[in-house]
Amino acid sequence: MSIVSLTDLAYIGSLLHESFSIPVFFMNRSGRIEFDFTGNLQASPLHGSMERMLSPLLHTSDSPDFPVLRTSDYFENFCSILIEEGGLFQGVLLLGPVVYSQIPDLLIMGLVNDYRMRAKQEEIAEYYRVLPIMPSSQFVQASCHAYYMIYRKQLDPTHILRMNRTMEQLPLQAETSVQNLSERRLYAEFHRDRAFEKQIWECIQKGQADRLRILWQSPAQTEGVGVLSKKSQVRNQKNLAISSITLATRYAMDGGLPPETAYTLSDLYIQMLEELTTAKDVDDLLARALYDFADRVNRNKTQSYTKPVKQCINYMFNHVYEEVPLSTLAELTGLHAKYISTLFKKEVGVTFTDYFQQLRIEEAKSLMRYSERTITDICVLLNFYDQSYFTKVFKKQTGRTPKQYIREST
Questions:
Q1: Which of 157, 213, 235, 350 is the most exposed place for a label (fewest CB within 10 A)?
Q2: Predicted model pTM
Q3: Are 150 and 9 in contact (CB under 8 A)?
């Protein structure tokens, strides 16, 4: 894999810093920072120096085929792109640190107390005030830009997320072995009652959403949960939730949910999860994710769609942020456009246009509840041509305007 010169890398770093307003570093194979673009960001009092903050990111075993995303114990998010030439490791281009949402003062106080750094409380608070805030989806987009400028290879954000999910990463400064963490994630050994766990996964596999809701709201759900992070309750909840979503994905596929749908759903929920900053929000989102998996398995079991119609449904679900014309579905299924349109309406009961509209409104509801995006941003993301039309469609489907829905959801 050929690589650009250090001068070109510095230029790329400068462009990324100016375009996305995020810190950019290049650390060579010896662990020395060759260049950095950091704006007014100073070294974190939690780390002591930039080198100590970045050195855990220097992984020679990382794949050069995609950007690697990592989160520190201090809620800092990084992207590392391995730089190699002729198969030889040269260093890493690093984006970050950034946070996915504003870190509450109470959480900062928790870090100060956890690490017994009261003397540096003001410095730590100032560090988080200066730290760039960037939604995870935008951070992944920035990694796509960086990777393309270096390797001239186009990557899909979903692909980057999926490849990162398959890596058994050791969290920065983790005190647990990779093997132990892997075993906990794969088998959900959180010291819960195993009979209770079995019931939860069985509900998802069989699509028993109502039974799952009753079980999940029972006292047994919160008893005896183990700890994956000794340093942060929120990080602990996130680790447990990620493990649970990973298992739910597998049981949903065992129950017949198409793998592409299951993995995309998993990526979506884990991405949303990383933007949350309170344990309660993490728990609420996990419950929603598990219910969603069970609901979808149930719908998949009860809907005897033909293969072409299922192909169309899966494609629309996975491309909800794009325009999906009938010609694309015709090409996907290898059928005539008029025929697939008629078949879709006959089996589903609505036109493919109306069905896709419903998917987009459901996605809009998720964004309103679990992100800080404005209604205007959501309109643009979901390709509604203006806000008044979006409001009309949203109200027709939900019975409420977007503003009313946001008020009721907060």
A1: 350
A2: 0.50
A3: yes
Type and span of the H or E element at 410 = none
Q: Are strands 33-37 and 77-85 parallel, antiparallel or unpaired?
A: unpaired
Sheet containing strand 88-98, edge to edge, reads: 33-37, 24-28, 88-98, 77-85, 68-71
Phi-psi region of 21 (alpha: psi -120 to 50; beta: other; left: phi over 0): left
Residue with tokens 């194979």: 29
Cα dist from 391 to 63, 320, 404, 405, whole Å = 44, 18, 11, 11
Q: Which amino acid is at 97?
A: P
| Tens-place pLDDT, residues 349-359 | 999 999 999 98
Reply yes or no: is the peptide bond before residue 171 cis, omega within 30 of 0: no
What is the CATH code for 307-409?
A: 1.10.10.60
Residue 135 in contact with residue 114, Cβ under 8 Å?
no
Query: Quick one: tokens of 343?
Result: 């078949």
Tens of pLDDT along 115-138? 777 768 888 889 999 999 998 888
Residues in the chain: 410
**Residue appearing with tokens 């719908």:** 299
Residues with Cβ < 8 Å from 28, sequence gap 6 or more? 34, 90, 91
